[in-house]
Design brief:
Layout (H helix, E strand, L loop, with lengths): L10 E5 L4 E6 L4 E3 L8 H11 L17 E8 L19 H17 L4 H8 L10 E5 L6 H9 L9 E3 L2 E7 L2
Length: 177
């Protein structure tokens, strides 16, 4: 049996409406986008990277996406984040300074070419978009938090931002299209 890192009785299922994995306990009928308490985050990280990350398919723009851009991001939350929990950990307790150290180390790997943002996002991002290599899809002006949007729209396709701070936490953003 494959080790998921989830507590007994829990499993990973796939949402057809959101096209994302979620956590489900068939016995209690409880479902959650966030891992249940008692999850082993390291084992879950390995399992999700192996079985629930996308192949990075990047379709081209269409008329429906006129005026929109497509980005991926890597999010590191801290205790002061708007919602200090994630699929990786039920309660984020790191300080903002600790989160900054973590994201700067990720940025260094990306800029040196040793890791891509998408590959790092799969295991290191605190956003559920990690399952899609951080891909947020297409969005337009007014769809995202202002700081995020300003940084994303300032990028050219293929460029990666420096650290961007929002109420959600600290981000690195890569403009895909």
């Amino acid at each position: 049996m494959v080790e998921t890192g989830l507590p007994d009785g829990w499993e990973v299922r796939h949402s057809n409406s959101k096209n994302l994995p979620y956590y489900f306990n068939p016995e209690t009928k409880v479902s959650s986008w966030e891992p249940p308490s008692g999850t082993n985050p390291e084992k879950l990280k390995v399992y999700m990277a192996e079985y629930h990350s996308s192949g990075g398919i990047r379709p081209g723009p269409s008329a429906a996406n006129e005026g929109k851009i497509r980005c991926a991001h890597l999010l590191v939350k801290h205790e002061g984040s708007r919602r200090p929990s994630s699929w990786r950990e039920a309660k984020v307790t790191r300080t903002k300074d600790e989160a900054m150290e973590i994201i700067l180390a990720h940025e260094s790997k990306i800029r040196s070419g040793t890791e891509s943002l998408g590959d790092l996002a799969v295991t290191e991002s605190d956003c559920s978009s990690a399952r899609k290599k951080g891909d947020l899809g297409f969005f337009g002006k007014g769809d995202m938090q202002k700081e995020f949007e300003d940084a994303a729209f300032a990028l050219k396709p293929g460029e990666v931002s420096h650290v961007v701070e929002t109420a959600s936490g600290l981000h690195l953003i890569e403009r895909l299209q």
